[in-house]
Structures are given as structure tokens and as C-alpha cells.
Design brief:
Structural class: alpha/beta
Number of helices: 15
Radius of gyration: 24 Å
Number of strands: 15
Length: 545
């Protein structure tokens, strides 16, 4: 007889929490009597037992609470209540993170990066009546301007199953009349990069582009606003980045349906963007080997819709708590942490950072670990599939990446926590690192993809709902979290950082030292659950359609 879902969820989480406690207890002998609040900030947490004792859920949640307060108190004149790139909220997030790191003794660098600041866009249906204003936003790479004119649907599919290649090739625009001075192309998400759709629309003569969501699944129904700087072959400059000379804005599937009606006219406004200067926060702890740098990062910015406390306050907070509790470490390898600017604009901060390094400096980075959304409220545990056991990666996978994946998976196995693969796609801040040939991996608990019944049976939660129902929404607040997932992953982030701080031999062949303390052996990974066969691995769409 199967257990009721709620009871099964409670059983899975209790077992995992018991396993975490048992792991810490098994490792700990000398530190068992010490209270973390009395010693963690001032001692060398150079063993697994010390570090895992000190990196606590309460500590991570305190950082998330601080980020929520920063958003709540932000009086930014354009995007109040957020921590988006180019806003007061982001600046104060930087101050919070950098201030704590400096206080802990880190060498902190505020690495300048130019970002594109887009003002709120307008999308208004004029005819057929009644006129209506639609929620919209500016795609990265958009041009500016005001266009009031005819809406021309381009190969849109409004009835199920709504498979869409709308705007993915020049032939989609053949036979459509874009000869007027104020034509608005309406294209539908699906198959190719958003930038490809915008490129072909502009080439066909459109003066503006509206990209509507696909509408084939619940997670592809709401407003879509993303990155339109990437393009497919054979477009010149592929894969990008490119920019467009006309406004490119987003729409929900429902609003796109209304815009697709015969006789539709609309008004699109995109104000000229500003170039503003943000910073990446880089914190370094020198090791004995200064030419073998172990790096981990998380993006610090939110979207313009809300405070971003899961995306990515979860990764930022867990990484910050790990860094603070490792501040007194005397590692074998140099340890470096990064909090990235403008990830939500298309991985801008991390790309600028890696591009700005000399070849020699890039060569010093032994590996990179990425943490983007590690506490989603309807979560499952996922690891970037560097060994391609589930997904054939659409990007190059640097040698050594699978060894990082193995550490994550072995830790989950040790705890008895089931896990799955997520596609090694480069659609987060590890992209620039893998493009530079730096071994990488990371953790993820899901974004807008819908949890399946099979996944509910394994991890609990609610089938038929997104892994994060508040993904890129105003409700991504302090309450938008799975505490169990956040606690387990915070421990794993700390565990992995300490492991590689002492030796990266499994990744790049550079021998180091054993982590101090009692001998500890990780089991062989149990293997992914395989619930994403033929799917996208829970990742948000990033730049692709």
C-alpha cells in the first residue's frame, strides 16, 4: 500500500535531515561540545565536521532576510521593491555582501561592469475594441522607439499542441506585407533563439517585434521577457551577442492571442536604454598554491518584477554563509567567490569578468561551481549533467567537469537524497567559464518547468505546478523557499568548497592535500533518477526559445 503524498514527503525529508545530522555527528568528535555561535566566526573551520556545524540554515536564512529587507526598502525611482541590475536595491545588496566579507577578512574586489538599463516598456492594443494595456518588458538586445501600427502574426499556432517555429527562418516572413512604415511583427516562442526571431522580423521590414509565449504548457503561458542577443546559424555573428535596431518586447500567450486577431493594431514603446555601471563582488582567500584557484559563484541581481529571494537570493545567501565560515581557513588552493551582476540581462557580469582576465589569469582558475536557485519551493535536487549521462550537452563540456558532478552526486548518495540530472546547457553564469575551457558544474532545484507525478513520488511537493511558481515574479519573497532543499544544498556547497580547497586532483590533476580531520570517504554516486528523459532538465529557458 502506497503512502499518502504528504506522509511520503515528510518521510523523505525526515530521512534526509536525519542523514545530514548523522553525517555531521559521524564526522564530529572534537567539536561536538562547542556552540557554533561561540566559535564558528573565529576558528579555522578546516574539517568537514567544523564547517558543516557552522554553515546553518539559520545563517543562510538571515542573509535571505537581509536581501528581502533591502528590496522592501529600495526606493529606486524606476524599479522599487527589487534588487535588479542598475537599481538602488542592487547597490545595497553589493554593500551588504561586500561589507560582511571585508569584515571577515577577505580580499574584496568590486569589479566594474557596464550593464544596459532598460526602462519600463509599453504594449497597448488599440483595435479591435476594447483597447487594453498589456504587461510587457524589454528583451535584452532590443532597440528603442515608438511604433503605432498594424500587428502582423508570423506563423503563430494558437490551437493545441501549439508546436512553434514562428520566426525561426526568413521563409516565415515571405508573403507577409511589412512594407508599411509602422508594422509590428507578432512571433511566438519556440525552437530557436529569441534573437533569431527578432533578426528575421527586422530584416523583413518590421518596425517592432512582440514575442508572445508559446502556450503549449502552463510554464510557457505567462509573460515572457528574456535575452534576444543570441542568434542561430546562418545569421551573421551567430551565436552572438547581437543587438537589434527595433523595439523587441514580450507578451503572455493570452495577450498574444488577442493581438493575433484580424484587424489588430497596437502601440509599442521602448525608451532608449542607459548604460550604467554595476559591480561583481569578488572575494579571495589566498592558499599555499596561488596558481590553482577554486572558484564558486552566484548571481546577486533579481529581475525587475520582484525581490528575487530564491532566484537568486538562495544561491547568493548559501555561498555567502559558506564564505564567511571559511574565512579563517588556510587552504592548500586559493579560494575565490563571485557574486555576479546582471545575470538576468544575459549573464553580463560573469561574461565581463572572464573576458577581462588575461590568458594567464584564466589559466589559474582550476574550476568553477555555479549556484543559481538552490531552494525552490516545489523543488527537486539536480546536478549539472557534465558526464552527459542523461543529456547530450549543447555546449562543450571541459574535461574535469564530471569530477565536480561526482562530488555533488556522492554527497547526495551519502545522505540518501535522490537526485536527477539537469542539462549542462551553459544557461547560467558558468557559460563564460566553460567557453574558456574551465571545468564547471553546479546545483539547481528548478524554475518554471512543471513537476511531474513521477517527480512528486520521489521528492514530494505538488505535481502539475512549477518547481518555482514564483519564478521571475513579485512573489519570489522570503517565504518562497523549500527549507529542506536549501539546508541540504547549503551543506553541499560548503562541503564541495572545502573538498576542492584542499585538492583538485580529480578535476585537473593538480595534487593537493587531504582535508584535515577524520578520514572520510564518499560513496559511488547512486545515479540520477531519470525523470527528465527527453526533456530540458528543469532549466529556465534562458536565451533560447
Amino acid at each position: 500500500m502506497s503512502e499518502p503524498r504528504r506522509a511520503r514527503t515528510r518521510t523523505i525529508r525526515l530521512a534526509a535531515l536525519v542523514a545530514v545530522a548523522a553525517l555531521t555527528t559521524a564526522l564530529s568528535a572534537q567539536t561536538a561540545s562547542a556552540k557554533p555561535s561561540e566559535s564558528c566566526a573565529n576558528r579555522n573551520n578546516n574539517t568537514y565536521e567544523k564547517l558543516l556545524e557552522c554553515v546553518t540554515l539559520d545563517g543562510v536564512r538571515a542573509h535571505q532576510a537581509a536581501l528581502q529587507k533591502i528590496a522592501d526598502n529600495s526606493d529606486d525611482p524606476v524599479y522599487p521593491g527589487t534588487r535588479a541590475a542598475g537599481t538602488v536595491g542592487y547597490d545595497r545588496s553589493v554593500d551588504y555582501v561586500a561589507g560582511l566579507l571585508r569584515g571577515a577578512g577577505y580580499q574584496v574586489t568590486l569589479d566594474p561592469v557596464d550593464i544596459t538599463f532598460n526602462f519600463p516598456a509599453k504594449l497597448r492594443q488599440l483595435t479591435p475594441a476594447p483597447a487594453a494595456d498589456y504587461e510587457t518588458g524589454v528583451f535584452t538586445g532590443s532597440g528603442s522607439g515608438e511604433v503605432q501600427g498594424t500587428v502582423i502574426p508570423v506563423d503563430v499556432h494558437l490551437t493545441p499542441p501549439r508546436a512553434s517555429t514562428s520566426g525561426c527562418e526568413a521563409a516565415d516572413f515571405v508573403g507577409l506585407d511589412f512594407s508599411g512604415p509602422r508594422d509590428i511583427a507578432l512571433v511566438q516562442r519556440g525552437t530557436c533563439f529569441f534573437g533569431t526571431k527578432a533578426y528575421y522580423a527586422e530584416q523583413a521590414g518590421a518596425e517592432a517585434v512582440v514575442i508572445m509565449n508559446q502556450g503549449n504548457t502552463p510554464d510557457r503561458s505567462g509573460l515572457i521577457v528574456a535575452d534576444a542577443t543570441s542568434v542561430d546559424d546562418p545569421i551573421p555573428g551567430a551565436p552572438g551577442p547581437v543587438t537589434h535596431g527595433i523595439p523587441v518586447v514580450g507578451a503572455s500567450f493570452a495577450d498574444g492571442e488577442l493581438l493575433a486577431r484580424p484587424g489588430s493594431t497596437a502601440y509599442v514603446q521602448v525608451l532608449p536604454a542607459e548604460t550604467r555601471s554595476d559591480v561583481n563582488v569578488i572575494a579571495e582567500l589566498p592558499g599555499r598554491n596561488t596558481d590553482n584557484v577554486v572558484m564558486a559563484g552566484a548571481h546577486l541581481d533579481s529581475v525587475i518584477e520582484g525581490p528575487g529571494i530564491n532566484d537568486n537570493g538562495s544561491g547568493s545567501a548559501a555561498l555567502l554563509e559558506t564564505a564567511l565560515k571559511m574565512a579563517k581557513l588556510k587552504p592548500e588552493n586559493t579560494v575565490r567567490f563571485g557574486w555576479w551582476a546582471a545575470e538576468e540581462q544575459g549573464l553580463v557580469g560573469s561574461a565581463d569578468y572572464v573576458t577581462g582576465l588575461s590568458a594567464k589569469e584564466r589559466g589559474r582558475i582550476a574550476m568553477y561551481m555555479n549556484y543559481d536557485m538552490v531552494g525552490s519551493p516545489n523543488s527537486i535536487f539536480m546536478v549539472y549533467d557534465a558526464d552527459e549521462s542523461t543529456f547530450e550537452a549543447p555546449v562543450p563540456v571541459p574535461a574535469g567537469s564530471a569530477a565536480i558532478e561526482d562530488v555533488y552526486e556522492s554527497f547526495y548518495t551519502k545522505l540518501g537524497v535522490p537526485y536527477d540530472d539537469t542539462e549542462f546547457s551553459g544557461r547560467s553564469d558558468y557559460e563564460a567559464f566553460i567557453n574558456a575551457g574551465i571545468p564547471s558544474s553546479g546545483l539547481f532545484t528548478g524554475a518554471e518547468e512543471i513537476k511531474s507525478p513521477a517527480q512528486q513520488a520521489i521528492w514530494g511537493g505538488t505535481a502539475g505546478e512549477a518547481f518555482d511558481p514564483c519564478y521571475h515574479a513579485a512573489c519570489d519573497t522570503y517565504a518562497n523557499v523549500d527549507l529542506h532543499a536549501l539546508e541540504v544544498n547549503s551543506d553541499l556547497i560548503a562541503f564541495a568548497m572545502l573538498t576542492f580547497a584542499y585538492s583538485t586532483e580529480s578535476v585537473n590533476g593538480v595534487r593537493g592535500q587531504k582535508v584535515p580531520g577524520p578520514a572520510f570517504t564518499l560513496p559511488v554516486p547512486a545515479g540520477p533518477e531519470g525523470t527528465f528523459a527527453g526533456e530540458a532538465g528543469g532549466l529556465a529557458p534562458g536565451a533560447a526559445g
